[in-house]
Write a structure and sequence with these properties.
By secondary structure, the chain is of the alpha+beta class. The protein folds into 2 domains: 349 residues, no CATH class; 146 residues, no CATH class. The protein has 23 helices and 13 strands. The strands form 5 sheets. The protein has a 4-stranded mixed sheet with strand order 7-11-13-12. Strands 9-8-10 form a 3-stranded mixed sheet, with helices on one face. β8 and β9 form a beta hairpin. α2 runs parallel beside α18, α5 runs antiparallel to α15 and α7 packs antiparallel against α8.
Length: 559
């Protein structure tokens, strides 16, 4: 128990080092850049807000007012909201959950490695790689839900306890570890649907291995290679036909990482950020800051290749899981952006429900778990370097240097403009940003800046626009049919008539219009439109926004 505490503390300290400068303002800032980080603190805020009002935390009218939106299909991370319900600080709630997830991801992988008899230091390295893989520290810039893997290795530990060596039968099923395994899955379900899928795939792949291993062991090396080649060839021709028939794959083939990505460090790497490495990233056709990151460190890659051809039967399940998840990462295989073939695993992207994984590179999280364990297990079983125990300490240091990210940008509570903290609105009045819009992970109508979500946490008034992971098409069509929205978003030149304007004010109840100063400079006609068409009580200018308080008590002023 004592050494487990030391392991947990070491991963906690590494999180504070790797997430620097978050530690300087842990309770009122988050790391990240781009549009996505704002939604996680907002998620925690909304969960607490709705639950405190005795409402369902899975629906809110704080956005897309007055109808509101369902949050069931949103990247909602309820586990962060649950904590925020008790401590009432979204920034701190998010950071605590992230810290705990990194700690338990590392600790769980450490315990899983120890189960295979791996030495403590080698097991610590396995836990470090799973917890701090470049895939995760790159996604920490904007996708916090992908960090929430703390329950994954514990699920696998309890799965192994529950199923035993004989396979999935009622007779040998152990119910106590099954209940713990179910709890781990429930935690994952309330954390991230991608990781929930990973656990489902782990179970399916484990059962596939268990029930097919005797068949494959009956084949000699050449028959096994011939069987794999036959399956691969047939799969390639079928998948090629599906691709050119434009069967919907949810964008998975487009998002499939280049094979070079296994050798290309993340763009936010502290050691490999610029120069040759940036050119290599360009050659690999990396289309974003994180979705093509498969790199696990050159040190681990060299060791994996060293032990790959020394694998014995006792290693096979770990090797099978490592390679299976590697193939799941690259359904459409490319080298330097040139298409080569398809992995047979690409079929899942044409199966309803399973094809919700539209960023297949995210499967690398499971590679980061199984591949290090297979590598160090093989090293120890084959007694490679057994006389040179000191090399593990050097290797651990090299891996920390290799995987360390650059210092992160910070989003702070103090970024919210002071004028929004002093808004003078009634409790039922909403805020109308000009321009505004409706958007989700696939579509957009108008413009909605996700920093409005952070600002809402301070002013606590409903917004007319929305960003949410999934929206029904009716929201977009309704927005596009609304002449007032279209006119003020400059998407229509027709001036709304009196009836349209009054209907808009009655339905949406805007008490204040917010226009960012730079937008007034880009379009000086916005102010003219507001003065001519809308009744207002006062206009104020702040450091970042111009505020227009509407007179919503007298719609006759629009006539």
């Amino acid at each position: 128990m004592k050494h487990k505490g030391f392991v947990a503390i070491s991963y906690a300290l590494l999180f504070l080092l790797f997430s620097f400068p978050l530690i300087q303002d842990f309770s009122s800032s988050i790391v990240g850049s781009g549009p996505d980080p704002y939604q996680y603190i907002w998620n925690a805020f909304i969960f607490d807000q709705e639950l405190s009002n005795a409402s369902s935390p899975f629906h809110t009218d704080m956005v897309a007012f007055p109808e509101g939106v369902s949050l069931w299909m949103h990247t909602y991370t309820p586990i962060m909201g649950m904590l925020n319900f008790f401590i009432g600080n979204p920034y701190l709630s998010v950071n605590i959950i992230l810290l705990l997830s990194f700690i338990f991801s590392g600790l769980g992988a450490y315990l899983l490695a120890r189960r295979y008899g791996i030495s403590k230091l080698a097991a610590w390295i396995c836990g470090f790689i799973f917890a701090f893989a470049p895939y995760k520290t790159a996604h920490l810039l904007e996708h916090y839900h992908l960090m929430l893997t703390g329950a994954v290795p514990f699920f696998i530990l309890y799965y192994q306890d529950a199923i035993g060596e004989e396979g999935l039968t009622i007779q040998n099923w152990k119910w106590k570890p099954f209940l713990w395994m179910s709890l781990c899955f429930l935690i994952t379900f309330f954390s991230d649907y991608y990781t929930s899928f990973f656990l489902i795939f782990f179970v399916l792949l484990s059962l596939l291995f268990h029930y097919s291993k005797d068949f494959f062991r009956s084949l000699n090396k050449w028959r096994l290679l011939g069987f794999i080649a036959f399956i691969w060839l047939i799969s390639h021709f079928i998948l090629e036909k599906l691709y050119f028939m434009k069967v919907d794959d949810k964008g998975a083939m487009y998002n499939s990482p280049d094979l070079l990505s296994w050798l290309v460090p993340a763009p936010n790497s502290w050691l490999y950020a610029q120069g040759f490495w940036q050119n290599l990233r360009d050659s690999a056709g990396q289309i974003g800051p994180n979705e093509q990151v498969l790199f696990l460190g050159f040190g681990l890659s060299i060791l994996f290749i060293l032990v790959l051809f020394r694998a014995k039967s006792r290693h096979m399940q770990l090797l099978f899981l490592s390679i299976a998840f590697m193939l799941l990462c690259v359904p459409k295989m490319r080298i330097a952006s040139h298409s080569i073939t398809y992995s047979p695993t690409a079929f899942i992207h044409y199966i309803p429900f399973l094809n919700n994984i539209r960023n297949p590179g995210r499967f690398v999280a499971m590679v980061a778990l199984f591949l290090p364990i297979f590598t160090f297990y093989s090293l120890e079983v084959n007694r490679l370097f057994s006389k040179w125990k000191w090399w593990l300490g050097i290797f651990a240091f090299v891996m920390i240097i290799e995987l360390k990210p650059q210092a992160y940008p910070i989003i702070a509570r103090s970024d919210v403009p002071q004028e929004l903290l002093d808004l003078d609105l009634g409790p039922s009045e909403s805020i109308w940003h000009i321009p505004t819009g409706y958007s989700d992970g696939f579509r957009a109508a108008g413009t909605f800046d996700t920093k409005y979500l952070q600002e809402q946490m301070e002013h606590k008034h409903s917004l007319l626009g929305v960003y949410i992971s999934r929206l029904e098409s009716e929201y977009f069509s309704g927005f596009k049919e609304n002449q007032v929205f279209q006119y003020f978003n400059q998407e229509s030149n027709r001036i709304p008539n009196e009836e349209e304007l009054e209907s808009f004010l009655t339905e949406f109840k805007p008490g204040c219009i917010l226009v960012e100063k730079h937008r007034l400079e880009e379009d000086p006609y916005i102010l003219q439109k507001i003065k001519i068409l809308l009744p207002f009580k006062s206009m104020k200018s702040g450091t970042k926004y111009n505020l227009y308080y509407l007179d919503t008590t007298s719609y006759n002023s629009t006539k």
